[in-house]
Structure formats: structure tokens, C-alpha cells
Amino acid sequence: MVAARGRGRRLAVLISGPGTNLQALIDAQNTPVLPNTSMVLVLSNRKVACGLARATTASPPIPTAYLACQPYVRHNPGKTREDYDLELARIVLWAKPDLSFLEVLRGSPRIDDEGQGPGETNSNDDESPINIHLALPGRFDGANAIQRALGVMVRRVVAEVDMGEPLIVREVPIEKGESIKMYEERLHRVEWEIILQATKKVPDKVRPLLPESMDLA
Q1: pLDDT tens digits, residue range 170-181?
Q2: Whole-structure pTM over 0.85, yes or no?
Q3: Catalytic hit among 133, 155, 156, 164
Q4: Catalytic annotation on 133?
């Protein structure tokens, strides 16, 4: 009889801003919300992104990396945006995550176990990255949507920007007399809630956690 310990979940997060969604994930790791989960990488396309500081000051500290498109292309003559996307994918895959969450990067690559980039087919869409989108399906694709969002969703990342399959969708209508600031705060609370739900849901489907011990005889 051999006892086998279930492997914990490994999560990589790609950011480019303050990292409030990242903080929700940091706070939830290894709690009943995200059990047996560890953050193995925070990757930013901005050198001064506040999310990097959140990662390095977490307990335990989370490994970080930085790679921006324009400096990458400038210092690598002949390289293109697609080459940059592939390099992002390689950095993420080096950390061996079970799930990648793209916090705010736009037009980011599909990341699969072969290091494929935009426009290439992932052999298992259940393992493609996910991201958060401040809109309902089919409405207001792209950035700067908070004043017209009326909802929020977590969706898969595909080559076409903001066109991936919605995984969790939540309507958040503006209440009578509510200011944009009040609505934004309420929308973000819903955003953090569904980020955690999706971050647990996707790995549960792809790689269910093994029990702490099991009979292999």
C-alpha cells in the first residue's frame, strides 16, 4: 500500500496595473475558497505595476517577472508582436502553472503546454488561460468599458481579443441614484467574487485534486 499526496494547484497571473484582482487571489490562496493553491508567478508588462509589489510583499513572496512588448521588439531586431506573445507564453510555462489568469493584459496569447501563440490551436481549451471582462457577452468588447458595463464575466482567452467563451457571467445593473464611483466599487466586489469562482472551477474540471492519501495497491 502506498500513500500518494495530492499535488496542490499552481496559479500564474499576468498583470499590467494595480493588481486588485491579483490581491483577491493572493488573499484566497490556501483558504476554503481556493484550497491547496499557490501562486507561482506574477508576470507584468509594466515595470512599475503595483501588482508586482503586491506579489513581492505577499507571504510567502511570489516570484515575479517583467516583459514589455516595445522594449522587447526594440532590443530584438526582427522580432514581432507574435514573437513577444510567444516569449510571454514561455515565461508562464516555465512556472508550470495549472491555470493562468490574465488580469488586464489585452490581446494576450493563448498559453498551452506547447508554448503556442496567437492564432494557433490549443489541443485542450479547458487548459487555456482565463481573464476578467467588464461587460456582458456580446457587448462593448475592448477596454474602458466600466461606465457602460452593466455586468462582468470571466472568459477564456483566445487569439481574438475579448472573444473567448464566457465561463461565469454576472449582471450588475446600476441602481437608482447610484454614482459611477459607487457602481464601480460594487462592480469590483462582484468581479473579485467571480474571479475566485472561476479560478477554482476551471482546475477542478481539468485536473481534480487528489485526496491527501489514497490506496494504490
Answers
A1: 888 888 888 888
A2: no
A3: 133
A4: yes
